[in-house]
Design brief:
Layout lengths: L2 E4 L5 E4 L12 E3 L32 E2 L2 E5 L6 H6 L8 E2 L1 H13 L3 E8 L6 E8 L2 E8 L6 H4 L13 H17 L6 E9 L3 E9 L6 E7 L6 H5 L21 H17 L6 E9 L6 E8 L5 E9 L6 H5 L12 H17 L7 E8 L4 E8 L6 E8 L6 H5 L12 H13 L9 E5 L5 E7 L6 E10 L3 E13 L4 E10 L2 E10 L8 E16 L5 E19 L4 E16 L1 H4 E2 L8 E2 L1 H4 L1 H6 L1 E15 L10 E15 L3 E15 L2 E14 L4 E2 L5 E2 L26 E7 L5 E2 L5 E6 L4 E10 L4 H5 L2 E13 L11 E3 L2 E3 L21 E3 L11 E3 L1 E6 L6 E12 L2 E12 L9 E5 L1 E2 L1
Parallel strand pairs: 3-10, 5-8, 9-11, 12-14, 15-17, 18-20
Antiparallel strand pairs: 1-2, 4-6, 7-8, 10-11, 13-14, 16-17, 19-20, 21-22, 21-49, 22-23, 23-24, 24-25, 25-26, 26-27, 27-30, 28-29, 30-31, 31-32, 32-33, 33-39, 34-35, 36-37, 36-38, 36-45, 39-40, 40-46, 41-42, 43-44, 46-47, 47-48
Length: 903
């Protein structure tokens, strides 16, 4: 024990507590008032010396204890101190008894110093002098930047209001250093300091010096002849520090990762037929500058084996060996692969589960022939009882009601166990989207060998989604879009959604609700109500746009879903909408027939607007038939989905058509985290009823533009919204009569859509490291292809128009050009609205020419890559796609993204 006196304005006596040199750190003292700005630490001169029993008059023989007294105690009662020692009045007192009493008192860790004194003037009067350890007031961390306090504090065992001891501080220093070593910071040091306070209290301060991460400078492999160093390093989680791995977390040294890499090497060799492979040694050495590590592996590859005889033995009567042999996907003569053996055992276990044997024990027995280098394998199915579901336990759901989870189970309590049904239950619960992805149904032994308990330990996640977007357009001015959806409303699995969009020229609002289990029956009922108010644009003579027409749509849809089998579902629906499309008659109507009746003038308004105006009531019924075996409807990795839809418009109303669509998806897990999605879809609309004519008397398509198929972003990446398919484009005409095909010279572009379409894509999901995957990053590469077509070719403006025998010339009464039909015409590039046609308002327009594009079935193709990210502010999707096959008139788009948030 050493006492140090610090002199100053506030002179006080402090004690330096010494910590052993094993950790290379000392515990020093700072004044209490210097909490933020501590003085220079007092150096530790020596290691502590364990005190021994002292007596004013050394005892040579036994001496009777006449009295026992305790002094120096502050918090502890004398009786408490005496209870820790075996000294009693009347017992003989020896040096050994005193030493044992000292050890017992120090073992309590309640005392900083203890002395046992025998009074010289009164032999046998024993006094135990103690100095109590202080009480910890608080724990303070300083210097920690890479590891936050919430990561370190749970590892510190010393806490406020506990008795301070050197042993506890040493242990906490070791724990903190171990945390930093797990991060690869082997240069980290921790200096514990103690700040004395009044009332025998202390603040314990851990001064942390984090240091830099210790990187892996090089990985050396000795003994490999069949595989290169690069191939083997590629199997390891640890990577060499280089520019190629600048963003990798595997370049820091981690002893746990070193052991993991040895297992990875062994797994790799076992999949390549080297059954005798072993890692002889794995040594990590610090470089001379003590900053990085060099790892050296010594391996023994051994001989390469092939499969020998493969057989199955079954002690379960219901599991025939011939049935199980069909599950073996390798044959004698193939190179030995331990992973194939594991997969075969898993497949056989699943098959046994399908027969009701939840705890089937299938063990591969190996017959190694070292001379022939073959490995025979016999899969032995041990006897096991058929199991029944004793109980289904659900835990972890704080918001979601039990019945929402329980109704997705394909098994009930008392049913015969079926492994496939357990997996199907897991997939259905995952597909709800209410819980984290890492969800499994655990199987545990029940109260008897033939009983099994199913445990569903769920971890709920945010099921609400809020999407907000805002922007500015030179045409639409400010644009704001808001949508909110709760997919697990009131914890009952119900879906409630609402959305609103607003800009200078458009407004819309919609609400919807879905009850997946109506009256607790397996029936889904939902509805949507909407109202949309759009105002479209057109160019005027000064090449700006103004409002051309108003469209107001109001309607609703009601849906009912009925499951037919486990994988087949049928849904029916009824939709009713009322569309009102109108134009300003003072600007866009003319007396086309000369009879004084104003009609929409396609020269002024455009063929698209004239075809759209009017009031229409669309009343339709429809149904969907779906087949779904996906293992997860939210993020599938395996399975198929097929959907057939038909909608019949004409149950009353003025719109008549039959729309049919089909789509199919296949997800295939290719292993190592790669998932391939193949998607195909297509559709056709059949119109019926009387013929339709445009304002010039020309026969036009029976299907109106609002009911046709449109294709582009986001379905076909690499193209803009409605970027492909039939369209009419108006181009400006130069003064010499030639057409200006520049994109910014397009006077008007009207995507017309089509009666038929097809589309497909191949998309490969690319795996990332565990860190990126946990952060929600999911990159993919894709190829998209598709087309929309089948529209009756619209009439573009010729040199003159005729309706009901009345000729509409291409020039007005003054000889000015109304429009162009041929770029070879070299006429004045001014179009005026002629008074002879009864147009109310005189206006002047630039000359233009209309051309029709996109009426072909030929595919458009794009390639690209994208990233989905569950970001802190919501799900984000970014796609970069390049159109490599396109047709004239198509609008392409390289970059697209969307974002939302969850709650």
């Amino acid at each position: 024990m050493t006492s140090v006196v610090i002199e100053g304005k506030h002179s006080r006596r402090v004690s330096v507590l010494l910590i052993g040199t094993i950790l290379g750190t000392g515990l020093v003292i700072a004044p209490a008032e210097a909490q933020r700005r501590k003085p220079k630490a007092v150096p530790v001169p020596t290691a502590p010396v364990e005190p021994t029993a002292q007596a004013a008059n050394p005892v040579v023989g036994a001496e009777v204890i006449r009295s026992l007294k305790v002094s120096g105690n502050q918090r502890l009662e004398p009786e408490t101190v005496l209870s820790y020692v075996k000294l009693k009045v009347g017992d003989p007192y020896t040096r050994d008894a005193g030493d044992q009493a000292l050890k017992a008192l120090y073992a309590t860790e309640l005392f900083a110093d203890v002395q046992i004194v025998d009074d010289v003037a009164n032999p046998g009067a024993i006094t135990i002098k103690v100095r109590e350890n202080p009480v910890v007031n608080r724990i303070v961390l300083e210097g920690n930047k890479r590891l936050k306090a919430d990561k370190i504090m749970p590892e510190i065992k010393l806490s406020a209001r506990e008795i301070f001891s050197r042993a506890k501080v040493r242990a906490d220093v070791a724990r903190i250093i171990e945390l930093y070593r797990r991060q690869g910071r082997y240069a980290a040091t921790v200096d514990p300091e103690m700040v004395l306070l009044d009332q025998n209290r202390v603040d314990v301060v851990f001064e942390i010096h984090e240091g830099d991460k210790s990187k892996v400078r090089a990985i050396n492999i000795i003994g490999n002849s069949h595989f290169s160093d690069g191939q083997l390093k590629g199997q390891m989680a640890t990577k060499e520090a280089s520019l190629l791995h600048v963003f990798s977390s595997g370049t820091s040294y981690d002893p746990d990762r070193l052991a993991y890499d040895q297992q990875k090497l062994r797994q790799f060799y076992l999949t390549q037929g080297y059954a005798d492979f072993r890692v002889v040694s794995a040594v990590a050495e610090l470089t001379p500058d003590k900053k990085d590590f060099v790892i050296t592996y010594v391996v023994d590859e051994g001989q390469r084996y092939k499969f020998g005889k493969l057989d199955v033995q079954s002690d379960i009567r219901d599991l025939k060996p011939d049935t199980l042999r069909t599950l073996i996907k390798v044959k004698p003569g193939d190179w030995y692969n331990a992973k194939t053996i594991e997969d075969t055992v898993d497949t056989m276990t699943d098959t046994a589960g399908a027969f009701g044997y939840a705890f089937a024990d299938i063990r591969p027995e190996f017959d190694r022939n070292a001379s022939k280098l073959t490995m025979g394998v016999t899969f032995h199915v041990n006897e096991a009882p058929r199991a029944y579901v004793e109980r289904i336990d659900i835990a972890g759901n704080t918001q979601t009601q039990d019945k929402v989870i329980r109704r997705e189970f394909r098994l009930a309590e008392g049913d015969a166990f079926n492994g496939f049904q357990v997996k199907r239950s897991r997939d259905r619960i995952k597909s709800l989207g209410f819980f984290q992805e890492k969800f499994e149904i655990n199987q545990k032994q029940g109260s008897a060998p033939d009983k099994v308990v199913l445990e569903a330990n769920v971890e709920e996640k945010s099921t609400g989604q809020l999407q907000v977007s805002a922007g500015y357009s030179s045409l639409e001015k400010f644009i704001v879009s808001l949508s909110i959806e709760q997919a697990n409303f009131r914890g009952k699995g119900q879906t409630v959604r609402a959305s609103a969009d607003w800009s200078t020229y458009s407004k819309s609002v919609s609400v919807g609700f879905t009850e997946p289990y109506l009256f607790d029956k397996n029936l889904a009922l939902g509805f949507d109500i909407f109202r949309r108010d759009y105002r479209s644009f057109n160019y005027t003579s000064d090449n700006t746009r103004n409002t051309t027409y108003n469209q107001v749509s109001t309607g609703f849809q009601i849906r009912l879903g009925i499951p037919l089998t486990e994988y087949w579902t049928m849904a029916t629906r009824y939709s009713l909408s009322y569309d009102q499309v109108s134009l300003d008659k003072n600007q866009y109507y003319s007396d086309l027939n000369g009879d004084g009746k104003l009609e929409c003038d396609p020269i002024i308004a455009g063929q698209y607007l004239c075809d759209s105006i009017g009031n229409r009531l669309n009343s339709s019924v429809g149904y969907s038939l779906a087949y779904d075996t996906l293992n997860n409807r939210i993020l599938p990795t395996a399975g198929n989905r097929f959907v057939w839809n038909q909608d019949f418009a004409g149950v009353g109303g003025s719109v008549k058509y039959l729309r049919s669509t089909a789509q199919a998806d296949n997800y295939r897990n290719l292993g190592a985290g790669f998932v391939l999605n193949t998607h195909l879809e297509g559709g056709y609309i059949l119109g019926y009823g009387g013929n339709r004519y445009d304002t010039a008397g020309n026969l036009v398509d029976k299907i109106r533009i609002n009911d046709r198929f449109q294709l582009g972003q986001p379905q076909l990446r690499g193209f803009d919204i409605r970027g492909i398919g039939p369209r009419v484009i108006r181009y400006g005409v130069n003064s010499d009569g030639t057409i200006n095909y520049a994109k910014n010279a397009r006077v008007q572009e009207d995507p017309l859509g089509g009666r038929a379409y097809y589309m497909g894509h191949l998309e490969m999901q690319i795996p990332l490291g565990s860190g990126a995957r946990e952060a929600g990053f999911r990159p993919s590469m894709f190829v998209d292809a598709g087309s929309v077509f089948g529209l009756k070719r619209p009439v573009t403006f010729p040199a003159s128009q005729t309706k009901n025998g009345i000729n509409r010339p291409a020039k007005d009464a003054n000889g000015n050009t109304l429009y162009y039909a041929d770029s070879s015409l070299n006429q004045n590039n001014t179009t005026t609205t002629p008074t002879s046609f009864g147009i109310v308002q005189q206006q002047v327009y630039p000359a233009f020419i209309e051309q029709y594009y996109g009426g072909t079935w030929k595919p458009r193709v794009s390639v690209g890559f994208g990233v989905s990210w569950n970001s802190p502010f919501g799900p984000l999707r970014i796609d970069i796609a390049k159109a490599i096959v396109k047709q004239a008139g198509d609008d392409t788009k390289l970059f697209s993204f969307n974002v939302g948030t969850q709650f």
